[in-house]
Amino acid sequence: xxxxxxxxxxxxxxxxxxxxxxxxxxxxxxxxxxxxxxxxxxxxxxxxxxxxxxxxxxxxxxxxxxxxxxxxxxxxxxxxxxxxxxxxxxxxxxxxxxxxxxxxxxxxxxxxxxxxxxxxxxxxxxxxxxxxxxxxxxxxxxxxxxxxxxxxxxxxxxxxxxxxxxxxxxxxxxxxxxxxxxxxxxxxxxxxxxxxxxxxxxxxxxxxxxxxxxxxxxxxxxxxxxxxxxxxxxxxxxxxxxxxxxxxxxxxxxxxxxxxxxxxxxxxxxxxxxxxxxxxxxxxxxxxxxxxxxxxxxxxxxxxxxxxxxxxxxxxxxxxxxxxxxxxxxxxxxxxxxxxxxxxxxxxxxxx
Amino acid sequence: xxxxxxxxxxxxxxxxxxxxxxxxxxxxxxxxxxxxxxxxxxxxxxxxxxxxxxxxxxxxxxxxxxxxxxxxxxxxxxxxxxxxxxxxxxxxxxxxxxxxxxxxxxxxxxxxxxxxxxxxxxxxxxxxxxxxxxxxxxxxxxxxxxxxxxxxxxxxxxxxxxxxxxxxxxxxxxxxxxxxxxxxxxxxxxxxxxxxxxxxxxxxxxxxxxxxxxxxxxxxxxxx
Lengths: 352, 224
Hints:
The complex is a heterodimer of chains A (352) and B (224). In chain A, helix 3 crosses helix 4, helix 4 packs across helix 5 and helix 5 (152-164) runs parallel beside helix 6. Chain A is 34% helix and 30% strand. Chain A has helices at 53-59, 83-91, 108-118, 123-136, 152-164, 182-199, 210-216, 234-239, 244-253, 260-263, 292-300, 331-340; strands at residues 8-20, 26-38, 42-46, 68-73, 76-77, 93-97, 170-174, 202-207, 219-224, 227-233, 276-284, 305-314, 317-327, 344-351. Chain A is an alpha/beta fold and 352 residues long. Chain A has 12 helices and 14 strands. The two termini of chain A are 43 Å apart. In chain A, the strands form 3 sheets. In chain A, strands 6-7-8-3-9-10 form a 6-stranded mixed sheet, with helices on both faces. Chain A has a 4-stranded antiparallel sheet with strand order 2-1-4-5, with helices on one face. By secondary structure, chain B is an all-alpha fold. Chain B is built from 9 helices and no strands. Chain B has helices spanning 5-40, 50-65, 68-74, 76-83, 89-113, 117-125, 130-163, 172-182, 186-214. The longest helix of chain B has 36 residues, at 5-40. Chain B is globular. Classes of the chains: A alpha/beta (352), B mainly alpha (224). Chains A and B meet through helix 2, strand 6 and helix 3 of A and helix 6 and helix 7 of B. Chain B: Residues 13-207 form the ABC transmembrane type-1 domain. Chain B: The chain crosses the membrane at residues 17-39, 51-76, 82-105, 145-168, 188-212. Chain B: Belongs to the binding-protein-dependent transport system permease family. Chain B: It is a multi-pass membrane protein. Chain B: Keywords: Cell membrane, Membrane, Transmembrane, Transmembrane helix, Transport.
């Protein structure tokens, strides 16, 4: 996912952003961002609030300008574009927002028509296009309602229809599901997936929820302190998270967190005397369903104690996560055995 | 009250309505764009022109600082140059309009500033020009607040219009002073006050009705 390549819908090349402060110094929001978003992908950027993900997203349609490097969308340099050229790029980039940003004074229809009016589309072409979009997002019955009369999920569907109105090639999603309940989040994510599949639209989304990436993102990047600390296909990152920030985001979503009574006693170093090693085992792909613990017992005679675990799907792949404790003396041997069979292991600590 | 006072009251009411209506229309024509500009021209905003914004802000404040009765007298030469006379309803419209413009401008500015910044961002993301954002987003979204602001302006102008009697502006206020006060006809004074109260009530109700009609920010019962 680095450097410029032909299959990229968007490319960040050495992008940095510094804001001037009142006292004359500068605060760095983003530094050294190199990322290319594959054509037709759903790419998610995850980070905590203040990590710079929002600034990064806003550079794609020129709402923010880089102070260093270039942002290319479909080969066009956004940061250098002004006036009509910038507005032309923006019409090719749809955007949806956490708080929907719908006009209270316009009906559903009127809101969806707005980008078309702005683009100067003749009125007689706007009507059928709006009908088609309303249908596409499943709001046919609600065309004449005002936003105040809609639920959060319905509002976001209007936001999506509006973002698609001018047939953009790229859709930006700014925490689009963060204001929604889990069930509504699912339906909105499904809609985004369908749009990505049916229209071949590249989606770049930012979120602070790993579950969103797990459910829809084919590619992901983790941003921390204004830098991208890890990036790649979502499945690879889930399977082999390299950066501590990634792991901490993952622990929230993979279900396998240490039970309190263990976490409280966890020691970073092996203590003297008999102890147990606590490890995380990640199952992926075809190995996710192998009976590895049974084999560990029969082949090596090691009894592993299951502390926590689950199996779920990341995209189309099964993905499992187990937290085990086992005799510290045999830990290295057990881990080597599991690694040899295609699993990933990580030592979390020790307990007496 | 003798019957021959009725036509006098009727004429005075029409004169007041005429002065207020024309100065409101002219005041809106001047005040709406000025208010929109004030609301969008600070540094980094849509029409970023911080210096022009500051200068216009000062002019608006200065105009609003001058007591209306002094404004009326102070601009008599200007009024005479503009309408050929400084006496009568047409002459009174000049200071009324001049007072209405900065007042309406501030009301519009406040209404526009209340519009959620996210809507401006969304419109910018659609590739809207600053003028499109103003026409299609800011003004329609601010319309309920603008309507209430204009109501307030009209009510104030009805009050101001009573003062232009001082320069022969005619209208209800003038009638009240000349007949009710100077000729000791308290029934005329009472009639004038009652008519003014009714006028203000009507304007207020009309304004609130219109503001509620254009306000779609809260769900309303649709009967199905």
